Batch of 3 targets.
Target 1
Amino acid sequence: MARAVRGRLPRDEWYPAHEPGLSSRLLELGRGERARIVEGGPPGEPVVFIHGWGCSAYFFRHLLQPVMATGRRVIALDLRGHGGSDKPHEEERYRPEAMREFVEQALGVLRLPPAHFVAHSLGGGVAMDLLGASPGMAKTLTLLAPVGLGPLRFISLARLLTPRLVAPLVPYGVPRWSIPLVLRAVYGRRGRWARRDVDEYWAPTADPAFALALRALLHNFRFDPRSDDELAHLTMPTLVILGGRDVLVRSRAAHRRSQRLPLARSVLVPGAGHVLAEEVPDVVLRELLPHLADNS
C-alpha cells in the first residue's frame, strides 16, 4: 500500500461531508477496482456528472443541490486516479478506451436508465467517447469546456516536463501552495476560490498514486479534437458551454466545432475561464436546467 502524505484534509471530511441530502460510497467494479460516487436526490431521472483532470466530484458542488431540487437523482463520479476512486499504477488503464470503460462499468453497477450527462474538460472527452459508442445511454449531454472539440494549449509542454524518468518524483511536487497557483491560472475574471477549495483539491495528494495517475493521463489520454465522424455519433441533444478566457481549451475553435454535433447549442461566456461550474455556476445552471427540462 502506498504511503500517505500527512497534513491533508481527513477523508471523512471530504465533500459531501456536512452537505444535506448528499452522501458518498464506493462501487465495486471488475478486477477488484473501486469507484467513489457522490449521490443524492429522489429516484427520478439520473444526472451523471463527470469531472476533469485533477478534479473530483467536488468540482460540481454548486450544481448538485439545484439539480436535485428539480426532482432528479444526481451521481457525481470520481474518475479513475482521482478523488476517492482507486488509482492503479498501470499506465494503460489511463488510455481513452480504459477511461471510457471505467465510467461504463460504474454506470453498469448502478443499473441506470438513460441519463443526462454533465461533463467537464477531460471528463468531456470521456463522455464523448462513451456516448459516441453508446448514444442510447444518454438523454442529453452537457459539455463544460470539454476536451475533444477544440485544440488544447500546453499539453505538449506538460508532457515534455513530465518524462518517465522523473515519474518517481512527481508525487512530491504538489505542495499546498501550488493549488492556488493552478486555480488562479484556470479561473477567468468571473469568480474566486475559497480556502476550503484549496483543501479539497489538495486532499487526494495524500496518496502518492494520485500525482502518478495525473501524469499517466497526460501521457496516455487523447486530448486532440474528435473527428467529424465521431462527433456525428453524438445524436443526443447537447449543450456546450465555453469560457471566453479559457487558458486551456481554445474556446472559439471549440465553439465553431460544436456545430458539427447533430443537436448542439453552444454558449460562450465572456470573461469566464476553464472551471465554469466553479466560477460561474449561476450561468451554467441558467443554461443547464432548461436543457434538462426540455429533454426529459
Target 2
Amino acid sequence: MKVFKAKCMICAVAMVLVLGIAGGAAASDIVINGSTTVLPFAQIAVERFMAAHPEVKISISGGGSGNGIKALIDKTTNIANSSREIRKSEIEQAEAGGVRVHETAVAVDCIVPIIHPSNTVANLTYEQLKKIYTGEITNWKEVGGPDSQIAVVGRDSSSGTYDTWQEMVVNKGGEARVTARALIAASSGAMLSTVAGNRLAIGYDGIGYVDETVKAVSVEGVEASTATAMDNSYPLSRKLYMYTDGAPAGNIKAFMDYMLSPDGQKIVSETGFIAIIQ
C-alpha cells in the first residue's frame, strides 16, 4: 500500500488556527469548524484561498464532526466539516432552528486500521476487527501476531471517524460496545502518535494521516488506496463533507467552489486524501 502523510498534522481536538486576522473568529467573514480528518486539506485550502482573495477573512478550527455540526445548528459556524453524513436527528434540530442543511461532498477517504511497524500482522477481517474492538480477541496471537496483549485505541464520540467505525465495524451484524479497556485518542493526529508509540496498539485513521510511523493493515485482503476507494473494493471507504446553511452564496460559495476546483482537489490529493473529482 502507498503510504501517505498529511502535510498539516493536527494533534489537538480544539486547536484553532485563525488565519489572516488579528482578532478571533468573530472577526472573520467565514467561520469553519468540525472534523479533524478534514482539517489538513481544508486548512491549506483556506490559506491559498485567502492568498488569492485577501479581502476575505476565514477562521478554521477542529474539534470533531459532531461539534462542527452542532455549531452549524447553533449558527456559530458557516461551514461544518464532517467525516460522516449528518444524522436525521441533527437535520431535524437544524430545521427547528431555521437552518437549512446543505451537503457538499469534497473528498473521499479510507479508514485504515493501523498498528505499530514492528507488528507482523498484515491483514484483518471484519470479524477480527470487531472482536478486537469489543474485547473478544485480546491477544495478537489470535490473529497471527505476537503473543502479546492488544492495546485497543479508539476515538471519542464527537468524532465522525468514531461514528463511521462504529457503523462499519463494531456494530456490523448488530449493536455492540467498544471494550472498556480501550484508550481514547482525542483527534486524528493523537490517534497516529498513540499507535506509533505503542508496539501493542491498534487504532484507525483517515488515509491522509497514515505515514511511516505506523503500519497500515489490509481489510478483508484489500489495501486502502485511491483505486480501491474509488472502485468501492476497499471495505472502509467514505466521503468527507462540508455542510452549510442553505446552498452556499457569496464568499462562502466562492470558497466552496475553490474546494471543488482542480486546485482545491489537488490539495486534497497532496495531503494524502482522495479527490472526489477525478
Target 3
Amino acid sequence: MNKVLDRIGREGPLMARDFENDRVKKSSGWWDWRPSKVALERLHLSGKLMTIRKSNFQKVYDLAENILPRDVDTTPPTAEEYARHVILRVLKAMGIAHAKVIFWSTRFVNVKATVKAELEKMVEDGEVSKVEVTGLKGAELYMLPEYKSRKITIANEAFILSPFDTLTVYRHRLRDFFDFDYQVECFVPAPNGSMDTFHYPS
C-alpha cells in the first residue's frame, strides 16, 4: 500500500492496469484480485485515494488531496457519527431496509455493534421508524419517518435496472417484497462448474 501511494504521488493518477502483475498464485476467479489491486481498493475505501473518473469501466486513482477542495473538513468521524451517516444514507437510498442491509454497507470496517446501538437509539428518538409489512415475517424493517405519509404512484412504464443497482443487488428484498427470485444468468455456473459465480448478499 505504501508503494502504491508513493508511485501515485510521484507519477499522478493511475489505473490498476498500470501496476505490474504482482500475483504470486494463479487467479482463482474474477474477484481474486492481485495484491496491487487489493492495495488500491483498500486505500480507496480508507479515503487515502479517490477515483476521479472511469475509463472503459476502469477506475483511475489519485491522492485524495489532489482531488478534494482544500476547504473540505477531512477530520475522521467518530464511530457513532459514521454509524448514523450509514443508517441515514441506506434508508434514504432504499426506502425500507433490514438491519442486515445496513450492516452490509459497513462490511469493510468493524462497526456493526455501533451501527446496531445507534439504530436502536434513532428508533427511540423517533429519527427512524420500524416497519411491518403485512404477510411478511422475519427480521425487522426500518425506514425514515418522513416516508410514512409519502404517496407512491406506480408508473405505467417498464424500467430496466442494472444488476448492480442497489434495488436489485439485495436479492432477498426482491423475493420478500415482489416474490421475484432474481439471478443474473452470466453469473450462473456452467454445467461443468467452470464458470465463476458472483455471490450477492442474501
